[in-house]
Each structure stands twice: as C-alpha cells, then as structure tokens.
From TrEMBL:
Name of the protein: Glycosyltransferase
Record localization: Golgi apparatus membrane
E.C. code: 2.4.2.-
Keyword Coiled coil attached: yes
Main localization, broad class: Golgi
Keyword Amino-acid biosynthesis in annotation: no
Domain Nucleotide-diphospho-sugar transferase per the UniProt entry, residue ranges: 184-406
Pfam families reported in the protein's UniProt record: Nucleotid_trans
Family: Belongs to the glycosyltransferase 77 family.
Membrane-spanning segments: 18-36
Membrane protein topology class: Single-pass type II membrane protein
Classification via PANTHER family: ARABINOSYLTRANSFERASE RRA3 (PTHR46581)
Length: 429
C-alpha cells in the first residue's frame, strides 16, 4: 500500500511539471511571436537603416496581418493592375483613332468611328457597301417659326419646297395647280416678296417668308431665274438642320403623279438628269482619239450629263449640308458662276492634291419618269409607245417659253388632247 501511494504521488508530480513546461512554452512562444514577428535569427537591415536615417517612422504592429489578409490584398492588387492595363489600352486606341481622324489618312476608320462596329466581309457576291448616311439630330433652335410650319405641312418628315418671287407668278400658279390636282399636301412655297405671300394665301397654298435678310432679299425680290435659283442652297440648310428631307423644285414643273411614291431614299442626293437617253443620263465610256500618240491614240474617259439643280431630293445628312455649304460659299465668292455647274462640280469632282472631294452618295432619277423637256419634245411625243406613259413630272428646263409649254403638257397628259404638243419645235425658236 505504501509503495502504491508513493508511485501515485510521483506520477502526479510528473504531470504537474509537464503542464508547467507546456504553459511556459506557450507563453514564451506568444512573447516571441509578439516581440519578434520576423523571427529571432533574421537580420533587420531595413529596420536598422530606418532607425539610423528616419527616426520619425515607427514600425506598426499591423505588420502581423494574417496570411489570408495578405492574399486578399495581393488579389486586389492584381485586379487593379489588370483594370489599369485595360484603361491604358483604351486610351491608346482612342488616341490612335483621333490621330486617324485628324490626319485624314484612313476614311474607313472615320466611318467606323461614326457608324459603329466593324464587320467581316461576307462571301463573294454578297458584300454591299454602305450607301445611306445617317441623318443629323434635328435642332429646332435653328428656326423655331419654320419648325412649327414644317410640323404642320410635312408628311413623314418630307416635303416639296419651291422658291418664288413675283417674276414667276404665272408659272407658279400652273405649278401649284398641278400639285393640288395630284393630291399632294406636303409642299411649301418660300415667298421672296410680299406679293407672293398674299398670292399664295389667296389660293390656299402653304407659304413661308423668311425673316428679313438684306443680301437674300435684294436678289429674291428682283432677281431672274438663275439668281433666285442660287438662293436655295442657303435657304435649304435650315430645313435639313431641322431634320426634314426636301424635294427641291423649280416652278417650271408640271406634276402628274406623287413623286414621293417613286423615290429610293438610299442616297444623300437623288436628282433628275439633264440627260436624254441611257448613255447621257446614267454615264458612258467616251473614247478620246489622239492620232499623233500612235499606239496609245485612244484614251478612255467617263462622261455623264449633269444633275438638274432645279429638281432634286436631298436628305438631312452631314454630307448634304456640306454640299449646300460648299455651293453657297462658291456662289458668294465667284460672281459669274452658275449654280447648276457648281452643284455638279461639288458632287462629282474626286479628291485630288489641294482639294478634298465631297463624300456624298448620289442617285440619278429615271429620266422617263422625271422627264426634262428635251426628252419630251425630241423623243417621247414622237414615239407611239412612250407618249402613252405618264411621267411623274415634266420639267420645262430646256425651253424659254415655259408657261406655254407647261400649259400644253397639262392639256396633253391631263386633258387628253393628243395634239397639244405638236405646235412646238424640238428646241427653242
């Protein structure tokens, strides 16, 4: 019994010493971990330098952050670095695109900036280039009074517009009478003097007179056909800025159908032609012969007869507004220039050294449907098949005795008088 008791006391004493040793070890480990976070045998050159050179900086106890927190910080750093790289790439791309626009080196890149994403080319025979430019954002502040009138007159943001002064009163009456007969409601006369304002109102014709402008008023009240025609390029600008497509019309035109039912609307400018057959209206290969060049005597050239600036459909696009600005500027600077010639030069001349051409889409109207008076009097009236077709309009642009021929056109196509055109010569007398 005595031996057993001594053995129990010895075991208890051993357990107590082990427990004390464990407690001392744990406490010592905590103290070492707190006061020597980097270990007992590591050197601290940075800390020594810190103590020698920068005495006002203290080591924070937060350096004992857990490994999980450190991993989280590293992850955030990597994520921020990736986002920063993406932003830098976007900045580089934007700078590159801006340089392309400013330098004008790559028109395709300019279109991408304006129109959106680039696309891959499809299979052979399926690729179609962009033909229709986007319209401008309407700006009613340009002319609130005109904006209100157009909201009442236009149909689906389209209308016929004509300029007129008292010199063309009689032809104007034939013009708007033919429009009414067809049933067209979306048309507007821009009156260049007060007499035309009263004349239109008395005939229930939509009319608009611009605010006073010395330069425009001086030409508008007394100018002839060509002078008045040149004004339209200044005046039409406001219509386009307001977001409306305009079918610009001279007043020496007879309407036989609604032209809005016969437009394609796929180009900036869609115009009738002064051409009189397929070649002259739509273009042809004209071979120039220079015999003294020997083997190389034949030079191929491209020819097309001009668009008629007295009847064209123009959409409210930047290219269209640029066209109007270019023509108006040249007419203002070049005193003896003809508006139709300038209109075509700006539309068709390509870019070349010293000159940036206009990037506008254009379409030629069907010359039998949108007929000039040369086609009518030289060809159509003499052809038994063609003279049975009813054109959309007839423009008496080739002949000076406009009023008489306009009335004869009405008699021929509307009244059915088949000999109404016979008395007139092919050309002018």
């Amino acid at each position: 019994m005595a031996v057993s008791g001594r053995r129990d006391k010895a075991q208890q004493s051993l357990r107590s010493r082990i427990a004390i040793a464990l407690v001392i070890g744990v406490v010592a480990g905590c103290l070492i971990a707190f006061y020597f976070p980097h270990g007992l045998i590591l050197s601290y050159p940075s800390v020594r330098n810190h103590r020698i050179g920068i005495s006002n900086i203290q080591v924070d106890s937060s350096s004992c952050e857990s490994s999980e927190h450190i991993k989280m910080l590293k992850s955030e750093f990597v994520s921020l670095s990736e986002n920063n790289s993406k932003l830098k790439k976007q900045i580089r791309d934007l700078k590159h695109k801006l340089q392309l626009v400013e330098q004008g080196k790559d028109h395709a890149e300019k279109q991408f900036l304006v129109l959106g994403e680039q696309h891959k080319a499809g299979p052979f025979g399926t690729v179609k280039a962009l033909r229709t430019n986007p319209t401008v954002l309407p700006d009613k502040s340009v002319n609130p009074r005109l904006a209100q009138i157009l909201e009442e007159v236009a149909v689906e943001k389209e209308l016929i517009v004509a300029l007129a002064n008292s010199n063309v009163k009689d032809t104007l009456e034939v013009w708007f009478s033919s429009i009414k007969r067809v049933g067209i409601s979306n048309y507007l006369v821009i009156a260049l003097d007060d007499h035309i304002v009263e004349f239109c109102k008395s005939n229930d014709v939509p009319v608009y007179k611009r605010d006073p402008d010395k330069g425009i008023d001086a030409v508008g009240k007394t100018g002839g056909n060509h002078a008045v025609s040149g004004l339209k390029f200044q005046i039409l600008r406001e219509f386009l800025q307001l977001g409306y497509s305009v079918l610009l019309s001279d007043v020496d035109i007879v309407y036989l159908q609604n032209p809005f039912n016969h437009l394609y609307r796929d180009s900036d400018v869609e115009s009738m032609t002064d051409g009189h057959n397929n070649m002259t209206a739509y273009g042809y290969n004209d071979v120039f012969d220079e015999p003294e060049m020997g083997w190389a005597r034949y030079a191929h050239t491209m020819r097309i007869w001009v668009f008629n600036s007295g009847f064209f459909y123009i959409r409210p696009t930047l290219a269209s507004i640029e066209l109007l600005d270019r023509v108006a500027d040249r007419l203002a600077r070049q005193e003896n220039s003809w508006d139709q010639a300038v209109f075509n030069e700006e539309l068709f001349f390509p870019s070349h050294p010293g000159y940036d051409g206009l990037h506008a889409a254009k379409r030629t109207m069907d010359f039998y449907m949108f007929m000039n008076s040369k086609v009518l009097f030289k060809t159509v009236r003499k052809d038994d098949k063609l003279n049975k077709l009813k054109p959309v309009i007839v423009h008496v642009n080739y002949h000076p005795n406009k009023l008489e021929r306009m009335k004869a056109v009405v008699q021929f196509y509307v009244d059915g008088k088949r000999d109404a055109l016979d008395a007139f010569p092919d050309g002018s007398e």
